[in-house]
């Protein structure tokens, strides 16, 4: 009887094991498959972002640069000779004309030298006349006549030299302009290295400034400019580009440009600082929000939203920026969506959800001379 019970228990155990292998995949395998199905059908949540649209701008851009004004002509005056000052014939800030006398040195000895040279020239001419009259009768040889002619020429040169020395005793204005403060007084002794005063032609001012290499081809002679100076903040001065350098500076990658500002009323003075604004007509470029620019070791980039609402990274080269917008060099099309908020969640291919799409017009200019 005990043996029969043992055999019965063994049959029941075998049946339980067989049943386990038959039904376990259906129970646990089904649940696993359902779990996998639920996992496969669960999508990654879309990243909420705000976007703004790309616009192409640049035609109405303005370049802004800082420069220092200098006179149309400017010189520091020195005497041609040493001597004692007998007269200072100008006052500080006086407008003078070309060749106007500014300073006189003692010249008594030089005046006597001129008189003596004139007398010698007169005597040489009279002697030449007598010799030429007598040459026809044979009383004077041809050699004597030639010698008399040479004497006249020598006397004429000596007179000219004496006149030059006398002229150097007077300092005159080389061009019309405004003289500065005199550095000498009557009675002072001066030498050719003694500074007398400055002279500036302020009828116009020249302002040199620099333009970035990327805009060098946009600047031409005659381009109109507008300038302001902190010395006269209420005024704005219109001028034009009067000179453009022939080459790009390899160190700064800039082009030197010179503007000419009319100054008929004389309010502008050399040495003033100026902010020069030059409209540029260069080619248009894509403009993106400044807050959308991201940086990494390789350079700058932005996140573009593709047509299927996923994130795509686009490398950009920054050209010009203002407070809100940046002009860039990049493979972007007008109207494309650029992420302006929510960049921290961006990865290539990540789905995005547009929460705000600013499609309004934007104003992008090129106000700076560099980034």
TrEMBL record:
Recorded superkingdom: Bacteria
Region (Disordered): 350-371
InterPro entries assigned: Beta-barrel_RND_2, MdtA-like_BSH, RND_pump_MFP
Gene3D superfamilies: 2.40.30.170, 2.40.420.20, 2.40.50.100, Helix hairpin bin
Transmembrane segments: 7-23
Domain Multidrug resistance protein MdtA-like barrel-sandwich hybrid: 75-193
Coiled-coil residue windows: 102-165
Domain CusB-like beta-barrel, first and last residues per copy: 207-278
UniProt entry keywords in alphabetical sequence: Coiled coil, Membrane, Transmembrane, Transmembrane helix
Family: Belongs to the membrane fusion protein (MFP) (TC 8.A.1) family.
PANTHER family: BLL4320 PROTEIN, MULTIDRUG RESISTANCE PROTEIN MDTA
Record-given protein name: Efflux RND transporter periplasmic adaptor subunit
Species assigned in the record: Rhodovibrio sodomensis
Taxonomic lineage: Bacteria, Pseudomonadati, Pseudomonadota, Alphaproteobacteria, Rhodospirillales
